[in-house]
């Protein structure tokens, strides 16, 4: 049977809770149990926390509790339903002005359904003042507005907000469940599905991206080969350079077409007289370009983070191979290279390497210099 919850894989507990809440919200005889108005979905990247929130929103607004086929379900999922607000951050943070605007927009009564549902995909990116502005509405939500916040972990959201939300945790889906999803939902070839699901290590979106994008698979391979080329100081700096360039290149590919289309649409909306945009057009174009720049920065950071995770996995594999724990394999395509490196690197060194990579991730998350952090990391891997 089709259901908006079908794509949430390995999340039975969460789905059961959401279905109960939806059923209670539609039961008119049920006066005692009021719908919870603020929810917080946490789970590791790629576990599907925002998909869970959107599926829940669809189920709330669907007359049949989330059939996945009616106009309510489909328009919630594509973001066009009049009673849903999807807040996706493209930049590095959600600012207080955006939250204030959002609060004004959502203070109206729902136009079609019983509820107005707001999904904030990156609640961890709310600035402090934005979070405080949001806190006020979450403390006293309108009877017909439901807030669904998503973040990687509980500690990513300020305590005052998280204490007022009902909390749900998604777990990392298993590799076999992700492969099955790719085969059944997207028609991916089984071999490719298994390869991508394994390489993505529990990240559904990453698995799909790898399965459908040859460029991404090539970039990943280049990244994973970097550690094998570490021989001396010069090669460590060279490795840092290569990694940064790959992250930038990938971000450029991911944003270029979208940036152009957005700019074209914006210019069209202002209309052109000769070569000049109508009043206000120039300012709007500048604002859009600033936003696009922020988005590219975030994409570069995300790509770097992904690259470091992939490299850390390689060292984990070198470690398990060294200790003869060969049942764990993340990079099926690179077993020969990994075996070679395993002969050169001791288990202790592999552990040090993983810890150096994770430290570098933390630094990048705190916005430390990318060049310095990555160069430093490779120097440490050289010693490992
Ligand atoms: Zn429906």
Question: How would you describe what is shown here?
Answer:
By secondary structure, the protein is an alpha/beta fold. It has 15 helices and seven strands. The protein has a five-stranded parallel beta sheet, covered by helices on one side. The protein has a two-stranded antiparallel sheet with strand order 6-7. Helix 4 packs parallel to helix 5, helix 7 packs across helix 8 and helix 8 crosses helix 9. It is globular and about 70 Å long. The model has no long low-confidence stretch (mean pLDDT 88).
- Helix content percent band: 55-70%
Compressed to H and E, one letter per element, the order equals: HEHHEHEHEHEHHHHHEEHHHH
Count of alpha/pi helices = 15
Q: Please report the distance between the alpha carbons of the first and last residues.
A: 53 Å
Unique bound compounds = zinc ion
Summarize the structure.
With 384 residues, the chain is an alpha/beta fold.
Spell out the key features of this protein:
alpha/beta, two-stranded antiparallel sheet, binds zinc ion
Topology:
Layout: H1 12-26, E1 38-42, H2 49-61, H3 71-77, E2 84-87, H4 96-106, E3 116-120, H5 128-139, E4 145-151, H6 159-162, E5 166-169, H7 175-186, H8 190-200, H9 204-212, H10 214-225, H11 233-270, E6 272-273, E7 276-277, H12 281-322, H13 335-344, H14 347-365, H15 370-383
Parallel strand pairs: 1-4, 1-5, 2-3, 3-4
Antiparallel strand pairs: 6-7
Helix pairs in contact: 1-2, 2-3, 4-5, 7-8, 8-9, 11-12, 11-15, 12-13, 12-14, 14-15
Bound molecules: zinc ion.
Zinc ion binds near residues 62, 64, 66, 67 and 72.
